[in-house]
Amino acid sequence: MKLPFAESWKIKMVEPLRMSTREEREQWIKEADYNLFQLKSDQVYIDCLTDSGTGAMSDRQWAAMMMGDESYAGSASFFQLKDTITKITGFEYVIPTHQGRAAENVLFSHLVTAGAIVPGNSHFDTTKGHIESRKAFAVDCTVDEAKDTQLEVPFKGNVDPKKLEKVLAENADKVPFIIVTITNNTAGGQPVSMQNLREVRAIADKYGKRVIFDSARFVENSYFIRTREEGYADKSIKEICKEMFSYADGMTMSSKKDGLVNMGGFIATRHEDWYEGAKKFCIPFEGFLTYGGMNGRDMAALAVGLDENTELETIETRIRQVQYLAAKLDEYGIPYQRPVGGHAIFVDADRVLDQVPKEEFPAQTLAIELYIEAGVRGCEIGYILADRDPVTRENRFGGLDLLRLCIARRVYTNNHMDVIAAALKNVYDRRHEITRGVKIVWETELMRHFTVKLERL
């Protein structure tokens, strides 16, 4: 008899959870202006808002924290982290930051100027925000297959080479770099193939441009290359990572995802001129070059986390749990971005709440309904997150409207996955009763989804 799959770890410490009443949740979400970011954590039963900084660290990571060197300059923990990053990526120059958006802020302050055009594959919210706040333009070059959530294509996160070539042919002088997000979060946690990374590299070389990887989930991307792309089944995760980064000039990293830590980020590059340019902004924005907004103990834990997560057993356990939840949704007939990605389920809200007009934000409405149903907190990745067009100020309805259910690493059991699936099924079963959504009553100019205030219609 074949043995079933089991986690590659055992539990050493637990934290209690409390299930609230429906009446409590209805009151709490109203007080939060129907914005799930504004809920208090103790008002949430199962938290699927994000996988960023919400994971559980290992015994090795906790031990490393006790050995952290808190020296202001020349911290031993920094050099431990730098050596680990260089070993995995091949990048020689490393600047730590307090998180991924800080890495973007530091590097983009050097590279992005007004009027610039930055092509990429579905820039995530902070990436787009850092580009547009500098009066520049983020141009989406994701493959069209990503728009059909029910299409089974192994690498729906890919950059479309024809779209990218067109942008460069028409605007090469305005393009400071190309950015590739691995995995493509906005498109549903979808991976980018190694072949596509080679194609992007070739186009970049043709036009004399450099390539940045937004690398928050680069280990998950490596796993999908190993399991979905011909020629990589026998490669280690670390070998695949090294090849991926060979096609890039630099990276920004939110370490709170695949770094398995609660806070941290970094910039890494093979180019000294990028390093020198970023240094000028790191020191005033983040801190000295050998801590850059991170504690020594956090850098030590990150070094261990990067090493652990680039081993097959760790990343496979993580992705298999997301696949377990996806199988439950298949059983209930609930549509999501297929095939399932590595860090979350992205439910297709337009298909579920097909009677809610797009102007009333179906994905946000679905997130509210799921929370009221069972205290499960998800996140809208759709029309609210898309913000308004920076020129016309019209809402951007051209993309997907998804409810993202992120799974924190090494935190929940499959019993919790069963609860999430059952709660979503209950909402799905009464979906035709939900005919109205929400309206915006207050919003900020950029990245409005974090603080937007809504009313139910």
Q: What keywords describe this structure?
A:
5-stranded mixed sheet, 457 residues, 2 domains, single chain, 14 strands, alpha/beta, 3-stranded antiparallel sheet, Aspartate Aminotransferase, domain 2
The low-confidence parts are: none
- If you average the pLDDT, what whole number results? 96
Can you identify the CATH class of the largest domain? Alpha Beta
Order of helices and strands: HEHHEHEHEHEHEHHEEHHHEHHEEEHEE
Report the sheet with the most strands, covering strand number, pairing sense and barrel closure. 5 strands, mixed
| CATH architecture classification of the largest domain | 3-Layer(aba) Sandwich
Provide the domain count. Answer: 2
- Portion of residues in beta strands equals 5-15%
Could you say what the CATH topology of the largest domain is called? Aspartate Aminotransferase, domain 2
Oligomer: single chain
Tell me the CATH superfamily of the largest domain: Type I PLP-dependent aspartate aminotransferase-like (Major domain)
Shape: globular
Rg over C-alpha atoms, rounded to the nearest angstrom: 21 Å
The strand order across the widest sheet is 2-8-7-6-5
The level of helicity is: 25-40%
Quote the distance from N terminus to C terminus: 55 Å
Computed structural class: alpha/beta
Continuous helix count: 15
- What is the β-strand count? 14
